[in-house]
Amino acid sequence: MNITSGNPVQKGASLSEINPKDYMAKLMEEKFNGYMCVTIKGKTGIEEGALIFHNGNIVSSDYEYYRYNKRFVAEEGLKRMLNSLVASKGVVDSFSLSPYQVQLVMTLNEDCNLRNEVMSVSSIDFPNAFSPAFEDSLSGEKVEGKGYEKELLLKKYGLAKLSGPKLTRAILLESAEEEYKKVDKMIKKKEKK
């Protein structure tokens, strides 16, 4: 999903320490404009999803299984996102955007837009417990391509473990950026020889 950088509202909240229904109710009541990201460790790899809020309503959703390089959008993404919110290990980040930025995100990601906006928490059917069934349905998928490479890269740099609330999207990006700089220096050294 193409999302512009927003202003951090909450970073690295552990899923084990929040009540997802209350968390979403608060965003909806505050007429939140922005997005909420969830990153969890599934049975076979990292999963990540995003919900876009416009004036407190959920308008768009995206969910990705990195190991399988498989992405689900709109209603299918929303189901998986709600499932991930009740996982025991993972983190939640929320970022605010201006209403104009939200409109831009929706325009750039039309395939992710829900047919009907979700306007209240009472209309959301939260699962009682995390179900691996969504991921299990992908087990027959051939693992190749960049999704698996992402997973290997995260494992290589020790980022695949979601050990607690300190691991955030910003930390992941910062670590990747540092590694990129090291690799870039090595390449430049070899080119000079």
Describe this structure in words.
- By secondary structure, the protein is α+β, with helices and mostly antiparallel strands.
- The protein has helices at 20-29, 74-85, 99-108, 133-136, 146-156, 169-192; strands at 7-14, 34-41, 46-54, 57-65, 70-73, 90-96, 113-118.
- Strands 1, 2, 3, 4, 5, 6 and 7 form a 7-stranded antiparallel β-sheet that branches.
- The longest helix is centred in the last third of the chain and has 24 residues, at 169-192.
- Number of discrete helical segments: 6
* Derived structural class: alpha+beta
Overall pLDDT level: 82
Task: Compute the number of strand runs.
Answer: 7
What Rg is obtained from the alpha carbons, in whole angstroms? 17 Å
* Major sheet details: 7 strands, antiparallel
**Global shape:** globular
Regions with pLDDT < 50 over 5+ consecutive residues? 162-166
Question: What's the N-to-C terminus distance?
Answer: 40 Å
Order of helices and strands: EHEEEEHEHEHHH
Total number of domains:
1
- What level of helicity do the residues show? 25-40%
% residues in beta strands: 25-35%
